[in-house]
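Researcher: Here's the sequence for the chain we discussed earlier.
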Amino acid sequence: MSLRTKLKKVLPSISTTEQEALDAGDVWLEGSIYQGKPDFGALRDVPAAKLSAEEQAFLDGPVKELLAMIDDSEIQNGIHLPEYILDFLKKERFFSLIIPKAFGGLEFSPYANSTIVGTLATKSSAVAVTVMVPNSLGPGELLLHFGTQEQQDHYLPRLADGRDIPCFALTSPEAGSDAGGIPDIGVVKRGQFNGEEVLGLEITWDKRYITLAPIATVLGLAFKVVDPDGLLGGKENLGITCALIPKEHPGVELGNRHNPMGIRFYNGTTRGEKVFIPMDFIIGGQKNIGRGWQMLVSCLGAGRGISLPALGVSTSQVALKGASEYAAVREQFGLAIGQFEGIQEKLADIAGKTYLQEAMRVLTTEGLGMGLKPSVVTAIAKYHMTEIGRDVLDSAMDIQAGKAIQNGPQNTLASGYIAQPIAITVEGANILTRNLMIFGQGVMRCHPYLQSMVESIHSEDKNADKEFNRILRKTVGYSIANSLRAFRLGVLPFTAGAQSALPEVREYEKAAHKLSAKLAVYADFSLLVLGGKLKQAEMLSARLGDVMSFLYAAMASIKYYEQKVASSEREQAAPYFHYATRFALQSAEQALHSFLDNFPASGTRKFMRFITMNYSTKMPKISDDLIRELAKQAQLDTAFKAQITHLVKPVAGDGHDINEQAYKAKMACLDLLAKVKKALRSKTIKAGVRFAQTLDNALVANMITEAEYIKLIDYNKKREKAIRVDEFDFDMNLLDDNAQPITPLKSVVNE
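Model: Thanks. This is the structure I predict for it:
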């Protein structure tokens, strides 16, 4: 019995849905990371993302106008998104970011799409989600890639100008992550449509968690098609199919709402019982029956690589801007709280990870802007950027403390804090994305020979043994080369290469090469020893996926620092860059150690550790000095901090504006505040019960001039407003008998 035959008996074949997922998308930078040779040359050749004049005008025009219209406190204490917001979104074509101009759309780049969604999310999660869904996985993108000309000509102009509102229904109560287990069925039948008997499908479905469903006018629907009577002349089970059905079509039920964490975007259910549709309703027509899963997975990039990462980045930028300004303005024990090391540790973590988030956002959208659909990279972006956003927001809540938990117009964190778990759950729940998708897809897509080997193992071709042996020889040679490279870098680490022109970058580039070489060896031995069992060893495979992910993050950090940071601002950016890159490299190294520590085969574990010289942690550390330096830099009003918080656009009178006004006022009079504190320490003046009284005393003692007094009083008024929180009338009736808000909250403080 040949080796191929033996393997065929023990290795599971790849299912149709798995194969379609593997076939969809492109291999990009993650391929070189997996193979142990991160391609920094290709990284540096990626064209830098930038907004076109038209995209910038949209941000400066409609987006800015929309931000001024949004009162998120009003939205969250209402029932529906205000009609005037929806009307504005339609009028200004916010739902057409990805639709070509030929159909009346804006046809913006992935980078612009991400920037618009991220900017809106800093003000209102509900509005951001409402905008991102039509521009993500759904009818619009499916029509663009797979629709018939007739379908495109009819629907795309209507979607572009808001005459039609789309939703897409995939998730069923019985099938969430397991899309292949969709219970919704369409039976091939003949039926009546527009007074004629036509061939079509009789569909029964029950879907939930469908964003925009309650207000949608056109329903995208995924279901399985069966042909029990052989009307199409082929097999009975034809596979997952996607159709587009108008809301007014007989039998379509849309309208019941869910309440996702109280965030007021529209999310709900759709159902239908034996609803007959003609074949023309199938996206792409009858020829696309059974191609639905392939269509869906090939279009996942927008949601996973653009929209959801944009939410994570916006959360981080709000957290950094708000926490750094609050830490600089808020004083306790006579010092700004940002001078306390406990606060500095949290603030530095926020700052470094926000830089990393922005770097990953830019690089991922740059790849998508090249026309690529890197399925593994977008899964990395979706998982890690939403998780880092959640982590950063927790730290910001800790710093702002009481201010962070009091709801009202002045609270800039509450909406994001409540909404963040939503991003964790959609486009593949994060547990699924980390444990099954990143390395699971990566190993098959990025290994140069594995997919071909599996195909040859299960092949029925008469030359299958010969083909298998040929691929096996190449695989063995590949694995030996990986092992030799990892051993060389372990014994002679100085031989790692680096191409960067910047000395501070070369150390990290070399570190990425060393970690990547180890990853390649561990992946090879995992496949050799565990084989098909690796699919079930989710904790092990997830750690290898983490290595890929954090090395991608480190590469993003390096590219951003080299290409997006002006040379005049490198000194400002350096602490952010060092913290972010070290965090990514340390996380990758820790994942490698955790993988080795838990590898089930003792002999193989010891051999892998030896061949990679992986006995201790070797990555550059995040020192206390770096934490202090970054925390100090994050509290300064610099051009670079503005660059990595650029999604936050304060509007006059909102919480962002109140915080920024106080912060900038303090930055403008630091020398005067130092003069007053010096006078207090020398007992030249007495401290008042309130700071304003202290300033009165300083003016009387001629320690400050009249002009300086006015400047300090202005700062103090802004400071007092910034550190206060919203408060409301005691007798305000917030809820009716059905626990529904009947009166929008109005802050007494901010009236």
